[in-house]
Write a structure and sequence with these properties.
A hairpin with a 2-residue loop joins strand 3 (about 80) and strand 4 (about 85). The strands form two sheets. The chain has a seven-stranded antiparallel beta sheet. The chain contains eight helices and ten strands. It is an alpha+beta fold and about 250 residues long.
């Protein structure tokens, strides 16, 4: 099991959906105590199941390359530039491959990264490195707009769709945003894809032994104007975190 010892924010704090709050640009990328285990899993998935966890529209390559450059400028504590690459918190040295920006990001950072670009009147998922999906599949969401991505989400009604689209339209490079969710889980596995066509099974109950929380950030890239939706996944034993309630 790959677990954090704690979730570094109050998962009992509730706000009306979508629950967005401001964030410092320098507080975007984190390294936590599960870095070594999570990165081993990410690198294994990128090596053995790349087509399932990475997708990029060729037209989105400039945005993916800009994302890599911005992330390298904002390296968190534990990651250090070294030559033509980065020395990671687990000791691994990862080369900076600008021809494979999402693959490079996926091997350096704990976060999953989704590129959302405005096409027509909505933002569309044009690229992603998604190693730790929680009940969705990248191949079913790739090149779909926000409303299509959220079709299976019961609470994602027309009002929330409009508010989320306004957030994507309005987020600025120096004023990123973040939110979180938190759900009890019976299975602590990080890679949990599920097709839209598959029957949704309960992920856990109030007596489930694990709590899974995603710290989701929205960051505007200044040059290409793409919006990055990043996901830092935490999984903790609920006995350590406390028996928290579910927050979607």
């Amino acid at each position: 099991m790959i677990l954090q010892s704690r979730i570094p924010y109050d998962v009992d704090e509730t706000r009306p959906l979508p629950g967005i709050r401001p964030m410092s640009r320098d507080d975007w990328l984190w390294v936590d105590d599960a870095y070594t285990g999570q990165m081993a899993e990410r690198r294994n998935l990128l090596s053995t199941r790349r087509a399932e966890v990475l997708a990029l529209d060729l037209a989105a390559l400039p945005a993916a390359q800009e994302l890599l450059e911005v992330a390298l400028e904002l390296l968190p504590d534990g990651l250090l530039p070294e030559g033509e690459g980065v020395r990671c918190a687990d000791g691994a040295w990862i080369a900076t491959d600008r021809s494979d920006p999402l693959g490079t990001l996926g091997r350096m950072f704990q976060q999953d990264f989704c590129l959302m670009e405005k096409r027509g009147d909505q933002h569309v998922l044009t690229g992603a490195v998604l190693c730790f999906p929680a009940s969705w599949r990248l191949d079913e969401k790739f090149l779909r707009p926000l409303t299509g991505i959220h079709d299976p989400v019961e609470d994602y009604d027309a009002d929330i769709a409009r508010r989320v689209q306004r957030l994507f339209d309005g987020v600025q490079p120096e004023r990123p945003l973040w939110r979180f969710n938190a759900l009890p889980y019976a299975d602590p596995a990080l890679h949990q894809p599920r097709s839209e066509q598959a029957r949704r099974a309960p992920v856990g109950g109030e007596d489930a032994p694990f709590l899974r929380s995603e710290r989701q950030c929205l960051v505007r890239l200044p040059r290409t104007r793409a919006v990055v939706f990043s996901i830092h996944t935490f999984v903790v034993a609920r006995r350590d975190q406390g028996m928290k309630r579910s927050i979607t």
